[in-house]
Amino acid sequence: MHDFPLNQFLAKESPEFADIHQIVAENQPLLAKLKFEPLSAVETRQVLSELTQSEIDESLVVNLPFYCDFGRHLRIGKNVFINIGATFSDVGGIIIEDNVLIAPNVTIASVNHPLDPATRRGIILAPVRICKNAWIGANATIVGGVTIGENSVVAAGAVVTKDVPANSVVAGVPARVVKKIEDLR
After folding, report:
1. Among 36, 52, 126, 134, which residue has the fewest nearby CB atoms (within 10 Å)?
2. What span, in angstroms and rounded, lies between the C-alpha atoms of 180 and 1?
3. Over the chain, what is the mean pLDDT?
4. Higher model confidence: residue 172 or residue 16?
5. pLDDT at residue 1 above 60?
6. Largest CA distance in the chain
7. Mind listing the pLDDT tens digit for each residue in 70-94?
8. SS3 for 105?
9. In 3D, which of 7, 32, 31, 5 has the Cα closest to residue 17?
10. Which InterPro entries has this protein been placed in (predicted)?
11. Which H/E stretch holds residue 29?
12. Omega of the bond leading into 174 within 30 degrees of 0 (cis)
């Protein structure tokens, strides 16, 4: 994993910004395979392993196409399922722990831009963590700096801007806790 400063501003003129563009360029052929080629499950895991430069467990299932803008800061646990059209912006880091379910068209963005127009071309890197047994519903969006707690559910279409406590169900825009998992038993 390449070291970039997390949870802080990275100016467009910084050397790290140039490094990001270099890695993106290097990864373009791999990213294209995940978007456009009919890969087997084994081939998909091989491409993801090369893209992330990390071991990908044989239990991972990804229904293509899969969209990613960087690749090197993506870590995926065991027994993870990622459905079609997932989009991961992982420059700031995305960690997906074991037994996570990700529904179609989920967006996870670990990078943002400053509100100030004078610095808006720079980026803010903030990691996202999806903890064990979480389920991310279709068309949900998770922004940088957020942790989705263990066993939690993000409802379809939710926009998650704050940490989600463990054993919770969140829904809405912005997402709010609507249930606790214990209440469903």
Report:
1. 36
2. 35
3. 93
4. 172
5. no
6. 53
7. 999 999 999 999 999 999 999 999 9
8. coil
9. 5
10. Hexapep, Hexapep_transf_CS, Hexapeptide_acetyltransf, Trimer_LpxA-like_sf
11. helix 15-36
12. yes
Give residue 136's pLDDT. 98
* Cβ(7)–Cβ(126) below 8 Å: yes
pLDDT at 9: 79
Topology annotation, domain 8-176:
UDP N-Acetylglucosamine Acyltransferase; domain 1 (2.160.10)
Known active-site residue 113: yes
Residue appearing with tokens 């463990």:
166
**What's the whole-model pTM score?**
0.93
pLDDT tens digits, 138-152: 999 999 999 999 999
Cβ neighbours for 12, distance < 8 A, ≥ 6 positions apart = 121, 122
Catalytic residue among 2, 21, 73, 113: 113
Buried b (16+ CB within 10 A) or exposed e, 115-142: eeeeeeebbbbbbbbbbbbbbbbbbbbb
Q: Pseudo-torsion of CA 142, 96, 19, 86, nearest 10°?
A: -60
CB-CB contact of 90 with 71 (8 Å) = yes
Distances (CA, A) of 166 to 110, 130, 152: 20, 11, 6
Strands 8-10 and 123-125: antiparallel
- What is the share, in percent, of the chain residues with pLDDT greater than 70? 95
